Amino acid sequence: MDIKIFPDKQALASAAADRAAAIIRNSITDRGHARIIAATGASQFEFLETLTSLPEIDWGRVEMFHLDEYMGIPDTHPASFCKYLRERLIDKAGVGKYYLLNGTGDPAAVITEVGQKLQGAPIDVAFVGVGENGHLAFNDPPADFDTEEPYAVVALDEACRRQQLNEGWFSSLEDVPKHAISMTIRQILKADKILCIVPDTRKAQAVKNCFEGRVSSMAPASALQNHTATIVYLDTLSSSLLSSDIRAERV
Question: Is 81 helix (H, G, I), strand (E, B) or coil?
Answer without folding.
Answer: helix
